[in-house]
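Subject: mismatched residue count in predicted assembly?

I count 278 residues in my input, but I want to confirm that the predicted structure covers every chain. Input:
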Amino acid sequence: MNTEQLIFYFFAALLLTSALMVVAMQNLVRSIFLFFVALFSLAALYVFALADFIAITQVVIYVGGVLVLMLFAFMLSNKELLNSLHPIKTSFKFYQLTGIFICLAFLFILVSLNLQIDFSGLNWIKSSTNIKEIDNTTHNIGILSMTRYLLPFEVLSVFLMMALIGAAHLARKDKKT
Amino acid sequence: MIPLSHFLIISACLFCIGLYAVLTKKNAIQILIGIEFMINAAVLNFVAFGKFDKVNGGGQLFALFAIVLAAAGVAVALAIILNVYKHFKTIDPSKINKLKD
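Triage response: the counts match. Full output below for your records.
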C-alpha cells in the first residue's frame, strides 16, 4: 500500500464516519459542523479522481455558501431548534429500524452490483483516453464549457438567476401582515 | 491509482447514509443535509467516471453543473423552511399536514 492509497482511504474513512455522525447526532449545530468535515473530505476524494477544479468548486460553493446558509436558517428558526439542543431521551423507534433496513438493503444492491461488473474489461473504458496527473483539467473545462457544453451552461445561468429571485421572494417580509 | 470500484462503493455508502437521514429525521434541515449527501454521492460518481473521458470532459462538466444546481436548490429549500417555520412554528415535516390555511 503506497502513500496515495493510504491518504485516499484515510479521507474515505473520514468522510464515511463524519457522514454517519452527522446522521446519528441529535444536536443540530454539531451535525452541521460535522457536515463541513464531510464536505472537505469529499473534496479531497475529488482530487484523487483527478478533478482538482471540481474539488475547489466544492470547497467554495459548499463550505462557503451552503454551510453559511444552513447556519443562517438555523439561527433564524432557533426557537424550536434550541429545544432540540437538549436531546430528548428517546428509545429506539420502529421507524428508525425500518429506515436502517431499507438503507442496508439498498446498499447491498448497489455494492453487489458494483462487485459483479468488471470495469477494466468494459469496451468504452478500454477505448477511452484517460486523464493523466499532468493534464491541465481547468484549461480543458474552460474551453469545453464555452464550446461543447455552451447550452447547458447558459441554461444553468438562467436557472441560477431564477433560483436567486425565487429565494429572495420567498424569504422577504410580507408588508400586508 | 485508485480503482474505479472503490469510488463507487464509497459513493454507494454515502448515498445510503443520505437516504437514512431523509427517511428517519424529524427536522427539515437534517433532511436537507441528507439530500445534500445523496447529491454529493452522485457527483462523486460523475467525477470518478469522468477520469476516463478526457476529450469530452462530460463527467467533470456535469459534476460542476450538479454542484451549482444543488446550491440553488439549497437556497430555495432554506427559504421555504423559514417560511414554514414562520407559519407553523415548527419544522418537523410530520407535523406539517395542511396545505393552504
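The radius of gyration of chain A is 21 Å. Marking this ticket as 'not a bug'.
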